[in-house]
Amino acid sequence: MTGSGVVKGRRRGGRPHSSSTPCLNFKDLAGLSFVVLDDIGAWKDVIGKEIKDAHFMYQDERDAMDEITLYSSFPYFTTNVTAADPSYHPVPANNWVERSIKGPKAELTIYVTVKRQRQTQVQPLVDRLKAAWAKLPTTPTTGGTNVLK
């Protein structure tokens, strides 16, 4: 499975929020402040290493994150997987711009390991995951395809 990074920010005429910028790389985000959900797994290490001089305001609770993103202009991160999370309530699109993050570190491969003796038992779940993964939304600027191998 591959997850793709996306940053969302309010339109203010400056970087990275300019509507004329179709995609960003991590260097474009240097020095900015972000509100970030604390439990983002491997993405936490990626953004910490790849976005130089950034300030991350981590939130433990999804509800707090939703409130902050609703009323502030801090950019925040989502992935193509975020929309599948039943606890995720997207901020209304009013004045928000979504930009894909491009580059070698902007996609994470997610691995699932299963013991061989359990493969037959787990295969129906794997098949359902593959079907669901292909239906996940792609980012509007990439128009790519989600692939679960």
Task: Give an account of the 3D structure.
The chain is α/β, with parallel strands linked by helices and 149 residues long. It has a single domain, classed as Periplasmic binding protein-like II (D-Maltodextrin-Binding Protein, domain 2, 3-Layer(aba) Sandwich). Helix content is 23%, strand content 23%. Helix 1 (43-50) links the parallel strand 3 and strand 4 (55-59). The longest helix has 17 residues, at 119-135. The chain is globular, with a radius of gyration of 16 Å. The termini are close together. Residues 11-19 and 140-149 have low confidence and may be disordered.
Structural class estimated from helices and strands: alpha/beta
Summarize model confidence as the mean pLDDT.
75
Give the CA-CA distance, first to last residue: 6 Å
Counted up, domains total: 1
Please give the number of β-strands.
Answer: 7
| Topology pattern, helix = H, strand = E | EEEHEHEEEH
Biggest pleated sheet: 5 strands, mixed
- Uncertain segments of ≥5 residues (pLDDT<50)? 11-19, 140-149
Tell me the number of helical segments per DSSP (H or I, 4 or more residues long): 3
User: How would you name the CATH homologous superfamily?
Assistant: Periplasmic binding protein-like II
